[in-house]
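Limitations
The structure tokens in this dataset are predictions for the assembled complex, not deposited experimental models. Users should treat interface geometry with appropriate caution, especially where small molecules or nucleic acid strands are included. An illustrative entry is reproduced here so readers can see what is and is not provided.
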Amino acid sequence: MTAMNARVSSLVAEAVEGRLSRRDVIRRGIALGMSASAIASALTRVPAAARAAQNEPVKVSILNKEMTHDEIVAEIQKEGEVNVGNWTYTANDTLIAKFKQYVKDTYGVDVGLNYEASQAPSTYITNLYTALQSGSAPSYDVMAIEENYWAEAMSQPEPVAEEFLPSGLVPNAERVLDMFNHAPTAVGFQASATPGIVYDKERASFITDWTDLADERLKQRLTMPLPGDITAGGMLLGLAEALKLDYKKPEEMTQAIDFAIQKIHPNVLQYTTDSATMQQLLRAGVVDAVGFWDSLGRMEFLNGQTNTAFLFAKSGQYLVNGYMWIPKGTQHPVLAQIFADWRLSDEAQFPPESWGLEHGPWAELNEGVLGESYVDLVPDWFKDDYFNFYPTIEQLTTNFKTVDWDYYAEHVGEWMDYYAKGIGQ
Amino acid sequence: MVNRLRFRRASRRGGLTHRHGALLSTYGETQMTHAPAEIAIEYEIAERSPRRWLSTPRARGMLLLAPAILVAVLFSIIPLIYLFQVSLTRESSFFFNAEYTADNYLNVFGRYRSAIIETVYLAGVASILDLVLGYPFAYILIRKIRYREFVRTMMTFPLFGPLYLAFGLFYVFLPTGPLGGVFVLLGVDIAKYLFSQAAVLFSMAVFTFPFMVMNIGAALANVDPLLEEAARTLGAKPWQIFTRVLFPLSWGGIVAGFLMCFGWNLGVFVQPQLLGSPKEQSVISLQMFLKGLVQFNYGLAAALGVLLMVMAFAVTWVSLRFSRGALGA
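Predicted assembly:
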């Protein structure tokens, strides 16, 4: 952490603890000799709770009203709990404990957090549609899942997500780069998640791009994701890019899928989206490369598998980050927003040593930098390697591509059906 | 004549007393101890008085059955109707503005015909494996073995977890796993067999093996060992004892066991997903999961589900019909 950022963090902490007003924060920043941009950064990082604590009302869009600290506390007491449908399994118990502690410290209320995790988060969408159809409340107050599911939900003829941004309860959303902000319905909480190739650098040093998966040296030494979900979808998009084909042109996407069927499929030992299976196969030397997510590469590296790496494909990567959104008809709108804001906070994005996480799980939980104000939060123990595993903000805006999710949602069914049929399913 | 008709109606409606009912079922109406007119009047009285009707055996039977019927309707029949309704809608439209279509069923019997064949094939072969290995095992278990309960327990516990069973097999056969090392020493490339039809069939058969053994075992337990002894005394060879004595007498258990294994295996999901090649991964339940819960094509997934339900119903019905009571019918 640089000296300046240490001072910003210290000022934020001081503002929260001392319940400083905005004016006090500016005065204190000037007194500390900080630049205008550093003071501005500190201001955006002072949680809403601190502002609300001064009983300055904050705008809460879902409820369409301004709420004072006391009103927020009363609402939290009334709501009592929040249910989050989450994408990953990492450090769930720690996240639950830390969030509950945060609410207790900030608002003085004991709350419950049901933090469900699934590697098939599409089930949350099914639950939501069923609830909406039957006119009952959704099972989850926050959906923290991949961007494509948000797009799929938004493509429905009736609104399924609340419009909650910008919100006085989620000031951290302002720190997130525009490319990760889908206001008014969603905000990204991950910046670097991307489906791709995790491989053994020694055994498969020749892999530099998606098309190398067709190399004969990988015969029966490769796993690919089961045709169906976004992991396979991201692969096909990446492959199209590497072949200089446009996924929005049906005949060109067919060519990309044909390449996967004819050239890559003969190399595939198993189609799986189970990370434990892939870990075992890679470690046992049964396969040299697996098609999965970037997080597996750095988790394995930090778990001592130093030959395991994630391939940033030469032709580029498509980002498929996790986004938080609030389903229509949520019963816990205030706690949902407080959770969303906390998930974007410094500590939940870059968990400190005090959380006691091992480095492997830490690197699985952390998904890059969401904006400039997060850059200097990279811990010292990972500083030298961090940007070997995560993109810089410059790379995010140049090398990484975003998907036209509306188009994807409309066509993914056809692609997958064609792909599955081609490989014999 | 009028009285006879009224009597028949009365007996059909269940308003007769137990005594009369029993007589009717045992001897027919010519053996009655009361005149038909008397019975009809009795019935009419019973029908008019709810309290008396409630005291009849049939009413008591119906009341006892009511919770089961209610549970079946609420949690089995209504969901099935719901599933069928979803199967007639396009993609995820059921949850918003339902667009009705028969395309899902055309798709099931067109695009997914190979999936149906694969599912039936895997279920059938795994059940045959169970039969071939299960019959001698059941025989030994019933006739020869000591510590029977321990062996039964060891045999039964795979029933509780196809997932850990499949994971266990995967781990065992990894080159770094306990058996994988042996194969490596023998120069066998076990990874080739790790994700194959053989691995899937083996794990399916291990999972349903107890069903086969329990059913055949139950049937064999009812075969008097003296019959085998008698056949042997009369000069029958072991294979003749099997084909002429044991096999015919345990037929009900074989059918029940086979169909039960087959029925369970029709819904196989975990084993092909973890251990299968793309061909085995095309089984119906896995496709249902992918279509419904991953790609949001609930209509197609529901149509596949309806097909699976129909197949399961048919198997259960045939099983009950031809198992000669081995399922407790």
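Some entries come with short summary sentences. For this one: The two ends of chain B are 38 Å apart (CA to CA).
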